[in-house]
Amino acid sequence: MSEQNKSHVDSGVDLLADRFVDPGLPEHKERMSDKDPKAAKRAELQVSILFLISIIGTIASIVVFFAIRPEGTTESVRNANLALGLSIGFALLGIGTAAVHWAKALMSDHEVVDERHPLESTPEDREAAVAELTQGVKDANIERRTVLKGTMITALALFPLTIAVPLVSSVGGDWDVSKFRHTIWKRGTRLTTDPNGRPLKASDVTLGSVVHIIPEATEEERSSHHWITEKAKAVVLLVRLDPKDLKETEERKSWSYDGIVAYSKICTHVGCPVALYEQQTHHLLCPCHQSTFDVADGAKVVFGPAKRALPQLPITVDDEGYLIAQDDFNEPIGPSYWERLK
């Protein structure tokens, strides 16, 4: 900054200083806990109770994790997740509300103004900061409030168990990545609409339309936890184009039917559902990170962070005109993993 410009800035600052008077800090108002030892004791007890709620929530989450296990049905999965979520919620809520109440009722609430200074503090400033922190600890009377201190330390020490126990218990579980190479699509499996499971005929799919597809299954199968998990890997987006717009290799010419093509809905970037179709360009967009795939050209990537085309589901029709799968997807669905070359 030139000397002239600096002079103008300084003049402007001086002018503002003359026009606006520094109001200073408002008069400090003491809280009930500052004036009444009984009120301070009540606040301490309330904070301890909140930390105790957190401790109970942590213990409950561990008990729930082992006692309420999913049994393969949607209802059991929902109940297990609900119980675990509520118990962890109480554990977090107890710590959070205790910290807020402690700060508002027991810690020093005197307003302090620090003048701006260079980023690098002087040794004197650092010593002063340590002294202020030490004084703050004294103001909070942590040493004398043994019950509060004990419940706080216990709550903070136990809470990581809500994450560590489920994580550790999963070690040694199912690490078979081969399951990612295949889905429940098999030769002859009918394509049905998602979510009602209605079989779909080729004649039902109009030009330019998009249909969300899942494999055909019985009512009993659709209610099982295993099928719900497998369905998540097998979801398909079906699109009907004008056959002359398709750019198909010789290998893939038999994978479509009269302009109808089927691709995995799971983005090859990080696995988000790809479902935004632009009819005029035949582009399919992933809403998470804007990866864009060309449905007319083998669902190849035309934009975005995805590196691989969407896997294609080879389809045809049966004797009744219903769309069926010729086989599973041409390659593993979803993002890359450590045993995949690409």
TrEMBL record:
The organism of origin for this protein: Populibacterium corticicola
Primary location: membrane
Entry's transmembrane regions: 47-68, 80-100, 147-168
Membrane association type: Multi-pass membrane protein
The keyword Nucleus is assigned to this record: no
Protein name: Cytochrome bc1 complex Rieske iron-sulfur subunit
SUPFAM superfamilies for this protein: ISP domain
Localization per record: Cell membrane
Function text: Iron-sulfur subunit of the cytochrome bc1 complex, an essential component of the respiratory electron transport chain required for ATP synthesis. The bc1 complex catalyzes the oxidation of menaquinol and the reduction of cytochrome c in the respiratory chain. The bc1 complex operates through a Q-cycle mechanism that couples electron transfer to generation of the proton gradient that drives ATP synthesis.
Domain Rieske: 233-324
PANTHER family linked: CYTOCHROME B-C1 COMPLEX SUBUNIT RIESKE, MITOCHONDRIAL
UniProtKB keywords: 2Fe-2S, Cell membrane, Disulfide bond, Electron transport, Iron, Iron-sulfur, Membrane, Metal-binding, Oxidoreductase, Respiratory chain, Transmembrane, Transmembrane helix, Transport
Domain of life: Bacteria
Family statement: Belongs to the Rieske iron-sulfur protein family.
Short name of any one Pfam family annotated for the protein: Rieske
PROSITE patterns: RIESKE
